[in-house]
Amino acid sequence: NAGVTQTPKFQVLKTGQSMTLQCAQDMNHNSMYWYRQDPGMGLRLIYYSASEGTTDKGEVPNGYNVSRLNKREFSLRLESAAPSQTSVYFCASSDTRQSVSRRFEKLFFGSGTQLSVL
Amino acid sequence: AQKITQTQPGMFVQEKEAVTLDCTYDTSDPSYGLFWYKQPSSGEMIFLIYQGSYDQQNATEGRYSLNFQKARKSANLVISASQLGDSAMYFCAMREDPGTSYGKLTFGQGTILTVHP
Q1: Does A1 touch chain B (CB under 8 A)?
Q2: Is A19 on the interface with B (CB under 8 A)?
């Protein structure tokens, strides 16, 4: 089971370069998310997509754009990378089925992308 | 103000002992969910346990239990019979009223747990 797949796993950029982080999930989940994790901090939400065709800003959206290409894929783009965007990026997806116990709410995470901007 | 506070940057425990990782939260929303995730040194995020604000019982998942004290706004993770493989970073997270999305979580800063043999 692939789950959530992120590419690349590592990337080094120079200030001002652009790049796109790719994410795909094979669990037929409606919602997808991009988080970043900085040293000594918890994960912070960058953008999310509640369903195919919709995207919304999270806590730290500045400097990023996203595209929900289809139900499976959600990409994160850095148009002009800055050193402050050096971080580990996680893509995640969730099952938004309604259920009596609402147990099916956990996030499934990808393995992360370590990005360094020099 | 911090929505999720984990006051223990690091914790140590002896193998086979129990350990409690603290988490306090702040919300005015009556409907919310609390999560614990484990992040080993390999970096992946592993879901451990979930507690809904309306759940009557404290959540348990194997060796993990959540000590949910709603009035005190605390959701401490208890790991029983610690194993060497439990050494990792542990994150507490909260989901407030989901609205359109269930996965909008606010994370705490994490607690590094080290299990000694």
Answers
A1: no
A2: no
